[in-house]
Protein: FAS1 domain-containing protein
Amino acid sequence: MRLLTLASLVAAAAAQSDLVSVLESQDDLSTLFSVLQGFPDLVETLSSASNITIFAPTNEAFESVPEDSAIGQAIANNDTTAIAALLTNHVYQGQYPAEAVMETPVWIQSLLDDSYEMDGMPFSNFTGGQYSGVVLDGDDVVVISGDLTLSTVTEADIEIGDSVIVHKIDNPIAFSPTLEAYTLRDGLLNFNAALATADLPVNFGDDSDKMPISDFTIFVPNDAAFENIGSVLEGADLETLQEVLTYHLVADNVVFSTALGNVSLPSYQGGDLTFTVAEDGSAWVNNAKIVFPNVLLANGVAHVIDSVLNPADDDFDREDIMPYADASDRVAFEDASPVSELPFSAPTPEMTYTTPGLLETYAAVATDGDMEATQTGDDDEDSPDATGTSAPEEGGAVKMMTGGVLAGAMLVSMLMI
Structure:
């Protein structure tokens, strides 16, 4: 037993030396290397980890961070908790070599968990770590993170041993916002106002006095969708508004568009939501089209849709979908009509997002050529590898988080066949 212990110590020391020496040898990673020196425990954790991918911001990436951003303020104020959270959000479970990344995004989880908090609220509150996406844009590997941020890999596949991959990126991976912050910044003001008016009993990340919720999926109607049913909203009481909004929420299930198929899932309200992938590759929930998928939040994922969902449609027949009809002709509330002013006051616009073209053009729904999910790497329970995932359940109708996260996690093993 003593010999095994000594061997383990020697191996750990060698791994730490490898990581440190690799980072130290890269001139354009000197800022990252310097920052890491302030977190010896994190360096030790990374050095002993297996089956991970590190996205390493270059010096220029750090220099490009706006001072008024969350990352810029953390660095300027030397906020050790925020900086530690930032660093762990650049380390991902599983190996993702550049040559295996596809045009359909794969949603992967970092080591950033709910143990990193600011003012009592975690930077991320997903089970298993914060999500980001990796996707191919032409010949470039791109990481999709919070606030619609894209980070392009500038140098790929620096290997440390046989279980750690480092990619250099041109932009730090961003923290993800709360639901309310996202809808305000993206100009989804009618939903933001409806959410505030409904005063739901759940904490989406901004109100610690309510019941916390994480690992959720929410479908956010755009402004036009609310305007199309203005007459219904005029006569709706608080209970009705709460019923409608909770019908847009799926609890305990992170559903990315890449995992969608012809399935049904229960909403938080209790009624079922019917999902359909049309022949043209578009994704639908009941008779509402997903017009902007996979918005990463601090504790869930949001999809923007073009119609407000009606809880009375909980037995929706997907044969009734009208894929070529305008959204105004697919209103889910009978006899609804627009009004000049909605019954809740929209907040002051704080639009700060400019949507990158890639997020409007990548393949939102997985194709037949995409890789299936599996798990690779060591099974050492003490190693922070990607062993906390499993294959999709039969039929894919529940816990679609597994399919969404892992649709493509066979990246390494497929290359090794």
The two ends are 35 Å apart (CA to CA). Residues 1-16, 369-417 have pLDDT under 50 and may be disordered. The first helix runs from residue 2 to 25. The domain at 179-353 is CATH 2.30.180.10 (FAS1 domain).
